[in-house]
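User: My notes are a mess, but here's the protein and zinc ion's SMILES. Can you give me a structure?
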Amino acid sequence: MKKAYVIDATAIFAEINPFVLDGEVYIPKRVVEEIRDSSSKFRLDAWISAGKVRVVDVGEESMKKAEKEAKKTGDFPFLSQADLEVIGLAIELSKGREVVVFSDDRGVQNVLLSLGIQFKGVKRKGVEKRIVWILYCPSCGRTFPPSYRKGVCDACGAPLRRKPRG
Ligand SMILES: [Zn+2]
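Assistant: No problem, the inputs look usable. Here's the predicted complex:
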């Protein structure tokens, strides 16, 4: 099977070398747009113009699947749009390809684990066990569904936290 790699911002900051990877390397458009650091931007631009890294606008259907899975694990409220695009792109590419995602983001890794998509931590070891998170208010004890993205408690305004279920 053809190999494909997906990289996120943490992989670029960690200065991975895409040229040593034996397959196509992809990055979601949103991740590219959010790179502000000039040396990272410079590296990424060089990879793109050399034709080693391809920028992809992730399809809606794959994004929906990514969101659905992130809600299942409870990572959704803590993932940015760029994080979700990394997951969505991995889903999209996994049709007919063996995909490996390079990311140090624990939430991204957890959702990928849940999807059965491979990943590698860049600077640190990746998560090994899938966690299902519960979103709760440490002040009044209320719990919230994973689709809740306000970050503060509806009832008392305290910042929400999360804990693993079970
Ligand atoms: Zn509360």
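The pocket of zinc ion is lined by residues 137, 139-140, 142, 153, 155-156, 158 (CB under 6 Å).
User: Great, I'll file this with my notes.
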